Amino acid sequence: MKICLASYDIGPHLNLGLIAKRAFDLGHEAVVLPAEKDLTDNWKVAKEIQGSDILVTGLASFETEADLTVASCALANNVPWVVLEDVPEACLRPKARILADKASAVILAHPAEQFRQHAVEFGYRPEILTYLGPPPQWRADYETTKAAMDANLRGSLQMIRQSYSFQPVTLPQSMTVLGYIGVKNPITNNNILKMLGAVLGNKFAIAFGKHPRERTERPEDEQRFAELFAERDEIVRDTYCVITDGLNGAKVVAISDIMLYSGSSTNGISGAMLGRRQIYYEDEAVKARIRKQTGQDHWFVAELGGAVKVSSILELADAIKYLSVSGELSALLNRNQQQNFPAPQDWDTETKIVRFLENLVQQFRI
Questions:
Q1: Distance of CA 299 to CAs 87, 243, 269, 338, Å?
Q2: What pLDDT, on the 0 to 100 scale, is given for residue 239?
Q3: Which of 80, 203, 342, 351 is most buried, judging by how many CB atoms fall within 10 Å of its CB?
């Protein structure tokens, strides 16, 4: 069996790489098309798809049409197309509705009935929806975070407060670290950091994990981005900041006492599985951005109780205050995390996906 795998976004693409490796181990041929590339009118890509037995794609948050172009090529050549979710409801990208009824299968990222029902309402046929286990990349994030926690990575870190000194100092064990995983939009990140600066005292340090795609992609935006990054330097100037150079999102989760999110970060999933204290900030601007991205206006981790939801600076201050101690709010959060985000005993989702694809190809050939 030859599998072609494609995704514009990095997140889904990481899952595809893990599946391709397992397919190869099981004796199949697997071709992973490059991420963040416009593959329109690429004859080499078309040839790969035409010569494949099946196509598996993710669906990009904003550049969904890039994945749909690849899917259309497969459908035009009678190659079955499978949608692989990297997070729940990733199959509901608004632009994907036009091809929803053409998919041969959708591999869901979470077994909750509400996600299956939403997929049916979107236009996917109910009989093609399946759940095979948590996405492979969730395990990679989980293992990275747990290993960093077990190794006490935090003990080797430094922090800096630029208004006080340009020399970093060792991060005290007594300091409460609030981690924030940034989103792609620098304005959102600056607003969140500004709120944190207003509510955090001297016993807190911020560990900011920058999103890898928080960058300008158009020359005309370069000046604006430079101004926003300069503004950020001023925002955090009087705040203790953990030096996070070289730390990915999973490791930021590992070193933080409390995590804050303002977007649908996959790191919040492993954080919930590991019982981390988490807050999700959502105001109308955040909801509008996520609605444009996913067609929904919520983050499933918070909806299932894996993070405390807040929508104002006062609620954020209260959540930080109460999660800083082992009280009622922390206990409720922990119960919800254990119920809705248990770490699976068997986490070999890659093998299950490959075996599922084998059966699907056999059915397609009949």
A1: 10, 28, 11, 18
A2: 92
A3: 80
